[in-house]
Amino acid sequence: MPGLMFPPASPPLGATAGTFELSWELFGEFCRALAVRVSRDYRPDLVIGLATAGVMPAATVATMLQADFEAMKVTRRERGQVVHAFPRVLSPTPVSARGRRVLIVDEITTSGDTLRLALAAVREVGPAEVRTATSFVRPGGYRPDFFSMETEALIVFPWDREVIQDHQLVTPPIYA
């Protein structure tokens, strides 16, 4: 593919422990790298983003791959707080996955519980094929079919760096 910055055989990038803060521009580059990696081996008809944060890279990847996009909520959280030991499917599986090549995308994977649950739910509607992708993966954890970077670092996504509280942009305490 002409004009791409990532060589065709480039391995996933790696980073050490610490904090890795993503700007919106860098987030876009990781999405671009993910889309390029997917396009080498797979041509999805439908990209399903796992809400909430997984829809950000998923929508970008879907647009770049010229694929349809849907969202599906699979989470351990309620009102922004982790409250469940295991993730739950909180929305219907997109039936538009039936008979199609599907790519399930999330922003990060560690244990793989969320991706495995989403994968099982999508398989129930009968896709032609389904694969998984994340922007980031933890070493030693679940490995999706595609990812941009492996890291132990705390990832601070651009949408997490500042949130709105009392009508003001503030840094959440976890990142302060």
Mean pLDDT figure: 86
- Unreliable spans: 1-12
Give the ordered list of helices and strands. Answer: EEHEHEEEEEHEEEHEE
CATH-scheme architecture: 3-Layer(aba) Sandwich
CATH topology: Rossmann fold
The class by helix and strand makeup works out as alpha/beta
Largest sheet: 7 strands, mixed
In helices, the fraction of residues equals 25-40%
Strand order of the largest sheet: 1-10-9-8-3-4-7
User: How many β-strand stretches?
Assistant: 13
Q: Which CATH C-level class is it?
A: Alpha Beta
Number of domains: 1
Global geometry: globular
N-to-C CA distance:
41 Å
Q: Rg, please?
A: 16 Å
* Residue share in β-strands: 25-35%
Number of helices: 4
Question: Can you characterise this structure?
Answer:
The protein has 176 residues and is α/β, with parallel strands linked by helices. It has a single domain (17-175), classed as Rossmann fold (3-Layer(aba) Sandwich). It is built from 4 helices and 13 strands. The chain has helices spanning 24-41, 55-65, 113-124, 158-161; strands at 13-15, 19-21, 46-51, 68-75, 77-78, 81-82, 88-89, 101-109, 129-137, 146-151, 154-156, 163-165, 168-170. Strand 8, helix 3 and strand 9 form a beta-alpha-beta unit. The model is unreliable at 1-12 (pLDDT under 50).
Fold blueprint:
Blueprint: E1 13-15, E2 19-21, H1 24-41, E3 46-51, H2 55-65, E4 68-75, E5 77-78, E6 81-82, E7 88-89, E8 101-109, H3 113-124, E9 129-137, E10 146-151, E11 154-156, H4 158-161, E12 163-165, E13 168-170
Parallel strand pairs: 1-10, 2-11, 3-4, 3-8, 8-9, 9-10
Antiparallel strand pairs: 4-7, 5-6, 12-13
Helix pairs in contact: 1-2
